[in-house]
């Protein structure tokens, strides 16, 4: 496997709302402490092993194979998409496919140009530099990155004031792999310097079932196909969540059974961990309940929702809302958040005549 070297010069500050992570370990796509080693073992090691994202894999395979045949360093790669879909895994695979070392850091860690210069000065020819959350890189470091990506050269400033001197430093050709969950926050000059851009999509139930089956084989767990499908259907379209739910179901099967995971064990475990049939957890349902039962379906501002459920507004907006909107249960309007007919039905309530999508739900029935 490719040599992975992880370098971070400054740890980013803990964002507001992070206290919710302790409540959302089961379904939060962000990796938690103690889970990373297990997740590393479950990561595929090559494009052939990677499940899902067929278009991205085919396109990336062409980029890497073409560069190998010409004997040159591949173009820089930008991977965008929600957390948990495999961006970091794809960066590891790129280094593995090229047979080079992988150097890892994150955008928040590169606060100064000197932080980036220190990394680039130690890079070897053909290495892969992976910057996670690249949209959060500091502006001075980003401007230095422009020259490094295009000309494989950086200017190091020595001294201060009128006596400062710029010393040009050539760096060997390398491949930058940037990952972002917010592609819209990338500046135009940075985005345009990537030769290949890939958008990672949410997974379907069929692909997630394959992910669960593969993880079960690696973990040495016997699982029925119906149980794999059940876990996959509650994983929010995210492989990281599917792998995490599998480990929780394994715990349940070990404690309450013989270790074999069947449909009953999967459903029992997911009920214990408050993950319902659509993948909603306690906090998701609390937001829906406040919106529907407390405010008649809205519209309601995000600050009001956050106070009602005892969370930070950023937690509701960044953790809960994306999936609830994608599941068709909440609509964002200029006046606030509005519950759809699907949200009313999911809570076991009859939607009012004026609810969004009420005619669609009646036609489905």
TrEMBL record:
Keywords tagged on the record: ATP-binding, Cytoplasm, DNA damage, DNA recombination, DNA repair, DNA-binding, Helicase, Hydrolase, Nucleotide-binding
GO biological process, alphabetically ordered: DNA recombination; DNA repair
Region (Head domain (RuvB-H)): 277-365
Signal peptide (from-to): none
First-level EC class: hydrolase
GO cellular component terms listed in the entry, alphabetical order: cytoplasm; Holliday junction resolvase complex
Reaction it catalyzes: ATP + H2O = ADP + phosphate + H(+)
Segments of skewed composition (Basic and acidic residues): 1-13
All residue ranges annotated as the AAA+ ATPase domain in the record: 73-206
Region annotation Small ATPAse domain (RuvB-S): where it falls in the sequence: 204-274
One Pfam family here: WHD_RuvB
EC numbers, comma separated: 3.6.4.-
Binding site for ATP: 42-43, 84, 87-89, 150-152, 193, 203, 240
Recorded GO MF terms: ATP binding; four-way junction DNA binding; four-way junction helicase activity; hydrolase activity
Annotated positions binding DNA: 332, 337
Positions contributing to Mg(2+) binding: 88
Record's subcellular location: Cytoplasm
InterPro entries: AAA+_ATPase, AAA_lid_4, DNA_helicase_Holl-junc_RuvB, P-loop_NTPase, RuvB-like_N, RuvB_wg_C, WH-like_DNA-bd_sf, WH_DNA-bd_sf
Region (Disordered): 1-36
Family: Belongs to the RuvB family.
Domain free text: Has 3 domains, the large (RuvB-L) and small ATPase (RuvB-S) domains and the C-terminal head (RuvB-H) domain. The head domain binds DNA, while the ATPase domains jointly bind ATP, ADP or are empty depending on the state of the subunit in the translocation cycle. During a single DNA translocation step the structure of each domain remains the same, but their relative positions change.
Role according to the record: The RuvA-RuvB-RuvC complex processes Holliday junction (HJ) DNA during genetic recombination and DNA repair, while the RuvA-RuvB complex plays an important role in the rescue of blocked DNA replication forks via replication fork reversal (RFR). RuvA specifically binds to HJ cruciform DNA, conferring on it an open structure. The RuvB hexamer acts as an ATP-dependent pump, pulling dsDNA into and through the RuvAB complex. RuvB forms 2 homohexamers on either side of HJ DNA bound by 1 or 2 RuvA tetramers; 4 subunits per hexamer contact DNA at a time.
Subunit structure: Homohexamer. Forms an RuvA(8)-RuvB(12)-Holliday junction (HJ) complex. HJ DNA is sandwiched between 2 RuvA tetramers; dsDNA enters through RuvA and exits via RuvB. An RuvB hexamer assembles on each DNA strand where it exits the tetramer. Each RuvB hexamer is contacted by two RuvA subunits (via domain III) on 2 adjacent RuvB subunits; this complex drives branch migration. In the full resolvosome a probable DNA-RuvA(4)-RuvB(12)-RuvC(2) complex forms which resolves the HJ.
UniProt xrefs under NCBIfam families: PRK00080.1 (NF000868), ruvB (TIGR00635)
Protein name per its UniProtKB record: Holliday junction branch migration complex subunit RuvB
Organism: Corynebacterium uropygiale
């Amino acid at each position: 496997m490719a040599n992975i070297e992880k370098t971070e010069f400054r740890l980013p500050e803990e964002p507001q709302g992070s206290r919710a992570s302790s409540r959302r370990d089961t379904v939060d796509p962000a990796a938690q402490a103690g889970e990373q080693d297990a997740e590393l073992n479950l990561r595929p090691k090559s494009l052939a092993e990677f499940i899902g994202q067929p278009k991205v894999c085919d396109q990336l395979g062409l980029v890497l194979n073409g560069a190998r045949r010409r004997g040159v360093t591949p173009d820089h790669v930008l991977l965008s998409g929600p957390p948990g879909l495999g961006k970091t895994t794809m960066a590891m695979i790129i280094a593995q496919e090229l047979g080079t070392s992988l150097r890892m850091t994150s955008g928040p860690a590169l606060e100064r140009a000197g932080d980036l210069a220190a990394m680039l000065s130690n890079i070897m020819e053909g290495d892969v530099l992976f910057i996670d959350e690249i949209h959060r890189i500091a502006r001075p470091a980003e401007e230095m990155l422009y020259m490094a990506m295009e000309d494989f050269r950086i200017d190091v400033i020595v001294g201060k004031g009128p006596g400062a001197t710029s010393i040009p430093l050539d760096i060997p050709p390398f491949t930058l792999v940037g990952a972002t969950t917010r592609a819209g926050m990338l500046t135009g000059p940075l985005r345009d310097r990537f030769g290949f851009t890939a958008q990672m999509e949410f997974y379907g139930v069929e692909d997630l079932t394959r992910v669960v089956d593969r993880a079960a084989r690696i973990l040495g767990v016997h699982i029925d196909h119906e149980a794999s499908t059940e876990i996959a259907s509650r994983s929010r379209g995210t492989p990281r969540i599917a792998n995490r739910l599998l480990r929780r179901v394994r715990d349940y099967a070990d404690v309450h059974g013989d270790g074999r995971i069947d449909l009953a064990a999967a459903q029992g475990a997911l009920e214990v961990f408050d993950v319902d049939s659509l993948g909603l957890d306690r906090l998701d349902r609390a937001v829906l309940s406040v919106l529907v039962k407390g405010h008649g379906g809205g519209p309601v501002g995000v600050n009001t929702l956050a106070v009602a459920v005892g969370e930070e507004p950023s937690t509701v907006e960044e953790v809960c809302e994306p999936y609830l909107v994608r599941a068709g249960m909440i609509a964002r309007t200029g006046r606030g958040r509005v519950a759809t007919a699907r949200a009313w039905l999911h809570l076991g309530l009859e939607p009012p005549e004026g609810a969004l999508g009420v005619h669609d739900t009646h036609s489905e029935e």
